[in-house]
Structure formats: structure tokens, C-alpha cells
């Protein structure tokens, strides 16, 4: 059949057309596969990032639910605050100022001195203030004050959580203002002052002892009647928030608590979807670890900004130091969890990257393997040479063991530890001596080394 036969030409044309169509279809499938792979990779990366942020949000939510939104845990968290020097100094300074305000010490001193002695009013008032401050510091550092502090914080927290629906003897709301009443603390200080410095009031003062933590109702009226004065409306009260920030924070925390289960479940679901959707699980692990670090750092930055904003609203000096110490103590658990997440994310990303096929991981694994083989070889040689080396340096080894034992004995305080140390030293000396004798035992026709005779 001639190659120019019309039938042959048509057949060749048909075959070429089919081949072109097959190639085009193959190219289309390849492009679709590449596009789908790219979409899956991007989707996996996005899901991994969302899972990382959801995990950090879950950790914050769990911490908030277990600490900030739980009165008993909150009380246990802030109970040690009076033991912090900065907090104790802030409480003492505030209480001293309030006590001086209610006692009107300067006017009393001025009235007690003749007019010609007015120049000593300032020094006398300063001495009285120092005495009151020392008494306040002793009260703040006592165990009886801790019980009162715990009860005040318990009541404060209970009412703070219910700030949108009620008031109490400790926390009250006025529009967008939330104030904390520290009158129980001032009452206890005045009670202790009356016992330690009875002349400071000019008469006998009878106030309830709140050392047990029980706060009676109508305490403000009781203090006014005992002191014979009318207390200002803001006496022993300070504003926690005056711009609705506390309400917004409580609403956010309450929302986080209600959505906590959904957040935790969403974290697991997002992570599973990321591994299912993405074509490479190792890459997803790397992305998840990196985004976990980013999320932890982002939350840390938000917390620092919140802390800076809160501290900026407090006057500089002892009060700001006290607030800073309080925030540090309260958020300690959250900071520790953030550090764990940061380290876990870094280790996860690094580990997943190092087991991958990249040139750097491959070279690193090869270098580690080669180093391990060299170390094993060197260790084997050292084991073989150790007995002979011990024989050659026996005296130095013995003296070194004694020196180490003496230094350790100076650091130990219990007789049991010293006894264990003595037994260990004896075992060490006997062991190296036995090893040296066994290794250095003379062969036929050889003399025994002088240092092992």
C-alpha cells in the first residue's frame, strides 16, 4: 500500500489527533493534580495555623475557667500576695494613708502643742506616721491578716463576677465604676493600733477583731460610731475600673468559658482535618509547630499590652510596684503554660524538619551518624586503654577520689549522706586498686610495678 494512499493518510491523521488529545488530556490531568496538590498544601497550612491559634486559645480559656472564673482557685492564687514585699508595701502605704486621714493626726498634734511650737508639728507627725506604718506592716505580715485578706478577696471575687447584677459590702457598681472596699483591712489595722498605741486616738477605741476572716454587716457604721467621725464616701475604697473595661473583660471571659468546649473540640477537629487534607503530614507538623510558636508569642504580646495599660493607670511608685507584683503572681500559671507551648512548638517544628528529605537535614543526619560512629570507636578504644591508664595514674586517681569526697563532705549536712559518701569513697578506692592490680599483675619473667606492690 502506498504511503500516499488516502486511507493511510486519514489513518495517520486520526492517530496523530488521538495522540495529541491524549497528550492534552494528560497535561490537563497533570495541571489539575498540581493545582489540587497546591490547594491541599495551602489548605493544610491554613488549617494547621488555625489549629495552633485554637490550641493557644483553649489553653487561655482553661486557665481562665480554672483560675480567674473560679472563686476558690482565685482566692488560693492571691492568698500569698501579702507575703510579697511589693504588695505588702503597697497595702501598708494605702492603709497608713487611710488611717492618717481618719485620725487627722496633724490637726491633733497642732492642737496639743502651743502655738510657738508649731515648727515641730511636721517632725512629730512624721514620727507618728513612721510608728503607724511599722504597726501596719506588722499587721499586714501577720497570720491573722492573711485570714482577713483571704476573706476580703473571696468576697471581692464573688461580687466582681456578678458585677452586672448586684452589689455587696465589698464591691459595688456605680454606672461603669467598680470599686473595692478595703474597710475591713483598715478596721483591723485600727483595732491593732488601739491595742499597741492606745494614746494615738486619745481615747479607748472598740472595733471588732476581724482576724478570723469574718466580716460583720454594717461595718462602716460601726467604724464611724467607734471613731466618732463621719467617713467620706470614698474612704478605704479604690476604683478598679471606670470605663467599662472590667465589664468587657468579664463578658469576654464568660464567653470564653461558654465556648471552651467548642474551642477544645475545634482544635482537635482542625488538626485532624489538616493532616487529612494536606498531602504531606510532615509539612503539616512543621507548619503547626511554627504557628504554635507564633500564636504563643502573639498571646504573650497581648498580655503584655494589657499589663502595661493596667499599670499605666496606677500612680508610679509603691502602688504600681504592688500592682505589677500582683499581676505577675496571678498570671504565673498562664505564663508557664505559654512557655511550654512555645517550646513544644519549636521542638515539634524542628523535629519534623530534621527528619525530612531536605539537603540540610540529610547532611546533618549523616554528620551525626558519622560522629556517633567515631565516638563509639573512640569509646571502645578508651575502654580498652582504661585499665592500663589506671595503672599508670593510680596514685593521682586515688588522691582525686579523696579530694572529691572531701569537697562533697563540706557541702553535705546529714550524717546519712556522709555515711553514704564514705562507703562510696571506700568502694571507689578498692575498685581502682583491684583494677590496677589485675591489669598490672606481672607476667612470667616480669617484675611487679613499684606503685602496685
UniProtKB/TrEMBL annotation:
Domain of life of the organism encoding this protein: Bacteria
Keywords for this protein: Membrane, Transmembrane, Transmembrane helix
Residue stretches spanning the membrane: 42-65, 259-278, 284-303, 340-356, 402-428
Protein name: Integral membrane protein
Organism, scientific name: Virgisporangium aliadipatigenens
Amino acid at each position: 500500500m502506498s504511503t500516499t494512499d488516502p486511507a493511510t493518510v486519514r489513518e495517520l491523521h486520526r492517530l496523530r489527533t488521538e495522540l495529541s488529545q491524549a497528550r492534552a488530556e494528560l497535561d490537563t490531568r497533570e495541571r489539575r493534580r498540581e493545582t489540587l496538590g497546591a490547594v491541599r498544601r495551602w489548605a493544610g497550612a491554613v488549617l494547621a495555623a488555625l489549629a495552633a491559634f485554637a490550641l493557644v486559645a483553649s489553653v487561655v480559656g482553661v486557665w481562665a475557667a480554672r483560675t480567674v472564673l473560679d472563686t476558690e482557685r482565685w482566692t488560693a492564687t492571691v492568698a500569698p500576695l501579702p507575703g510579697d514585699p511589693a504588695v505588702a508595701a503597697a497595702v501598708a502605704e494605702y492603709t497608713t494613708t487611710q488611717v492618717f486621714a481618719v485620725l487627722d493626726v496633724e490637726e491633733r498634734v497642732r492642737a496639743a502643742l502651743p502655738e510657738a511650737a508649731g515648727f515641730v508639728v511636721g517632725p512629730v507627725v512624721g514620727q507618728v506616721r513612721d510608728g503607724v506604718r511599722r504597726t501596719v506592716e506588722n499587721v499586714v505580715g501577720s497570720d491573722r491578716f492573711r485570714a482577713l485578706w483571704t476573706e476580703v478577696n473571696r468576697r471581692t471575687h464573688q461580687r466582681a463576677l456578678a458585677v452586672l447584677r448586684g452589689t455587696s459590702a465589698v464591691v459595688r457598681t456605680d454606672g461603669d465604676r467598680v470599686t473595692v472596699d478595703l474597710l475591713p483591712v483598715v478596721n483591723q489595722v485600727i483595732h491593732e493600733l488601739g491595742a499597741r498605741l492606745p494614746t494615738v486616738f486619745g481615747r479607748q477605741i472598740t472595733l471588732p477583731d476581724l482576724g478570723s476572716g469574718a466580716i460583720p454587716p454594717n461595718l462602716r457604721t460601726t467604724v464611724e460610731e467607734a471613731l466618732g467621725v463621719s467617713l467620706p464616701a470614698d474612704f478605704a475604697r479604690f476604683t478598679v475600673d471606670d470605663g467599662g473595661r472590667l465589664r468587657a473583660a468579664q463578658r469576654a471571659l464568660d464567653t470564653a468559658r461558654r465556648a471552651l468546649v467548642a474551642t477544645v473540640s475545634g482544635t482537635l477537629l482542625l488538626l485532624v482535618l489538616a493532616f487529612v487534607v494536606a498531602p504531606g503530614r510532615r509539612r503539616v507538623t512543621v507548619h503547626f509547630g511554627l504557628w504554635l510558636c507564633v500564636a504563643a508569642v502573639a498571646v504573650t504580646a497581648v498580655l503584655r499590652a494589657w499589663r502595661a495599660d493596667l499599670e499605666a493607670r496606677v500612680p508610679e511608685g509603691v502602688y504600681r510596684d504592688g500592682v505589677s507584683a500582683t499581676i505577675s503572681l496571678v498570671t504565673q500559671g498562664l505564663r508557664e503554660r505559654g512557655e511550654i507551648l512555645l517550646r513544644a512548638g519549636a521542638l515539634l517544628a524542628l523535629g519534623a524538619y530534621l527528619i525530612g528529605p531536605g539537603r540540610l537535614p540529610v547532611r546533618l543526619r549523616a554528620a551525626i551518624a558519622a560522629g556517633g560512629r567515631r565516638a563509639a570507636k573512640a569509646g571502645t578504644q578508651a575502654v580498652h586503654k582504661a585499665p592500663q591508664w589506671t595503672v599508670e595514674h593510680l596514685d593521682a586517681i586515688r588522691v582525686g577520689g579523696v579530694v572529691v569526697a572531701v569537697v562533697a563532705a563540706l557541702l553535705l549536712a546529714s550524717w546519712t549522706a556522709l555515711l553514704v559518701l564514705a562507703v562510696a569513697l571506700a568502694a571507689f578506692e578498692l575498685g581502682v586498686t583491684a583494677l590496677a592490680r589485675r591489669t598490672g599483675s606481672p607476667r612470667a619473667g616480669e617484675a611487679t610495678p613499684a606503685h602496685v606492690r
